[in-house]
Write a structure and sequence with these properties.
The protein has 4 helices and 12 strands. The radius of gyration is 16 Å and the shape is globular. Helix 1 links the parallel strand 1 and strand 2. Strands 3-4-2-1-12-11 form a 6-stranded mixed sheet. It has a 6-stranded mixed sheet with strand order 5-6-7-8-10-9, with helices on one face. Helix 1 crosses helix 2. By secondary structure, the protein is an alpha+beta fold.
Length: about 230
C-alpha cells in the first residue's frame, strides 16, 4: 500500500519575519519544507503576482526550491494586482485539479477550497486544501459549512480524500459541523497557543503519526507545520 508524508503549512505570504516580503523569508520557508521531508504540502496564505510580494509566483518558486516539483494554485481572491490563495505542492504528478469558490454572503473577503488528484505510485488520491474565514465567528461558521457541503458531495459519490487547511477554529467545532470525517489530530498547537490547522480524512485512508514541526522558531512564519503519514 502506498504511503506518503502530508503536511499543512501556513506560510504568511513569506512576510512574517521582516514584516514584509523578502527573498530570504521565502528561502527559509523552502528550507523548512525540505527539512520536513514531506511528499505533499498544502500551503495557506500564498501570493501570486501581488505587489506586496514583489509579484513573485510563490508556488512556482517554492516548487523550484524544493523536491516538490508539481503544484497547483487555488485562488481565493484578486489581490494587489495579482492573486491570493492557497496551493498544493507535490512530489507526485497531478492528474486533475479544480478550484471551488464558496457561495458566501457573510465572509466578505471570500474564500475557497481546491483539490489536486495525485498519482502516488500508481494509486490516485485526492488532496483538498482550504483557508477558512478569520473575520468573525459567523463568517468562519459559514465557510466551514461551505467546506462541509463540498466534502459531503464527494462522500456521496463514495470518494475518499484528505483535506488540509487553516480552519481558524478548534477541532471541536470542526467535528461539530463535519462529524463524519476523521481528524489527524485533536489538539496539536499550531498557532500561538491554539489548534487551528487541521488534516481531515475519510474511510479507506489511514493516517498515523500526527505531529508538528516548529516552523515559528526563527520567525519565518506564525504557524507550525502539521504533518502526518498517509497510507492509501
Amino acid at each position: 500500500m502506498p504511503t506518503f508524508t502530508l503536511a499543512s503549512f501556513n506560510i504568511c505570504s513569506a512576510h512574517f519575519r521582516e514584516g514584509h516580503y523578502t527573498e530570504d523569508n521565502l528561502a527559509r520557508l523552502a528550507e523548512q519544507i525540505n527539512q520536513s521531508a514531506a511528499d505533499v504540502v498544502c500551503l495557506q496564505e500564498v501570493d501570486r503576482g501581488a505587489t506586496r510580494s514583489d509579484r513573485v509566483d510563490m508556488p512556482a518558486r517554492l516548487a523550484d526550491m524544493t523536491e516538490l516539483k508539481h503544484y497547483y494554485f487555488i485562488k481565493i481572491r484578486d489581490f494587489q494586482g495579482g492573486e491570493y490563495g492557497t496551493a498544493i505542492l507535490s512530489r507526485y504528478p497531478i492528474t486533475d485539479s479544480r478550484t471551488i469558490n464558496y457561495p458566501v454572503t457573510i465572509a466578505t473577503q471570500g474564500t475557497s477550497c481546491g483539490y489536486a488528484v495525485l498519482d502516488v505510485e500508481g494509486t490516485a488520491v485526492t488532496v483538498y486544501n482550504t483557508h477558512l474565514s478569520v473575520e468573525n465567528e459567523e463568517a468562519n461558521t459559514e465557510t466551514l459549512c461551505c467546506l462541509g457541503d463540498v466534502l459531503s458531495e464527494v462522500r456521496r459519490r463514495n470518494g475518499s480524500f484528505v483535506c488540509c487547511g487553516d480552519f481558524n477554529t478548534n477541532p471541536k467545532k470542526v467535528a461539530r459541523f463535519i462529524p463524519w470525517v476523521e481528524m489527524a489530530h485533536k489538539g496539536l498547537t499550531t498557532y500561538a497557543d491554539r489548534s487551528i490547522d487541521h488534516i481531515l480524512y475519510t474511510d479507506g485512508i489511514t493516517v498515523e503519526n500526527p505531529r508538528t514541526m516548529d516552523t515559528q522558531v526563527d520567525g519565518t512564519t506564525d504557524h507550525n507545520m502539521v504533518l502526518c503519514k498517509v497510507t492509501l
